[in-house]
Amino acid sequence: MKVSILQFPGTNCEYDTQYAFEKLGAQTEIIWHKSTTIPADTDLLVVAGGFSYGDYLRSGAIAKFSPVMSAVKEYADKGGKVLGICNGFQVLTEARLLPGALKRNEGLHFISKHHHLKVENNENIFLEKLNTGDVVNIPIAHHDGNYYIDDEGLKELEANGQILLKYTDASGEIKNPNGSVASIAGVCNKEKNIFGLMPHPERAMESLLGSDDGIKMLQGFLAS
């Protein structure tokens, strides 16, 4: 399997992402944001985390204008699988490839810690190695992770099974760290080929570092 990983000025998780997928046996390639094409052999395109363009104006708001984003949209429109992690999720919402928006955390502080998530829907390639209701422990590290969508949009997400993950405690009860609507931590598009989440599964690959729950999350992509 070939995983292509986007790199913008300010991206800081591309090598963590590369390590995670190579640990699972995938071939990887890092793609600079000025590229106008996605490698033809790409099986999964990852928009990695970090602070693209220093999060100036708004997180992901400048990155959406990078040359590569036209190729990302074309790739996704043809059914290509795309995963946005943290800042990558922000970029995908700004580019309107995923619904909703990411706002400043409710407490106005940067949050960096492990946090539990509950799987809300596993009828997708991303989370198919997990069961609905499973709770995983995954690092979060964000200042603008407060997911927002209006009431009509939320109903649509729920009706289409687009809510992937929610922030909870270890027992699966809602525990919202940033004010996200409905405690949402991750969503997908209607076609379920574009995925976004604020937590960092690529940082949860080693039990020695606090959790290896990211392995099962990312393995779903390798099963295709």
Automatic annotation (TrEMBL):
GO terms for molecular function: ATP binding; glutaminase activity; phosphoribosylformylglycinamidine synthase activity. Keywords: ATP-binding, Cytoplasm, Glutamine amidotransferase, Hydrolase, Ligase, Nucleotide-binding, Purine biosynthesis. One of its GO terms (biological process) is 'de novo' IMP biosynthetic process. It is found in: Cytoplasm. The active site is at 86 (nucleophile), 200, 202. One of its GO terms (cellular component) is cytoplasm. Pfam families: GATase_5. It comes from the Bacteria. Pathway: Purine metabolism; IMP biosynthesis via de novo pathway; 5-amino-1-(5-phospho-D-ribosyl)imidazole from N(2)-formyl-N(1)-(5-phospho-D-ribosyl)glycinamide: step 1/2. SUPFAM superfamilies: Class I glutamine amidotransferase-like. Part of the phosphoribosylformylglycinamidine synthase complex involved in the purines biosynthetic pathway. Catalyzes the ATP-dependent conversion of formylglycinamide ribonucleotide (FGAR) and glutamine to yield formylglycinamidine ribonucleotide (FGAM) and glutamate. The FGAM synthase complex is composed of three subunits. PurQ produces an ammonia molecule by converting glutamine to glutamate. PurL transfers the ammonia molecule to FGAR to form FGAM in an ATP-dependent manner. This is Phosphoribosylformylglycinamidine synthase subunit PurQ. The lineage of its organism: Bacteria, Pseudomonadati, Campylobacterota, Epsilonproteobacteria, Campylobacterales.
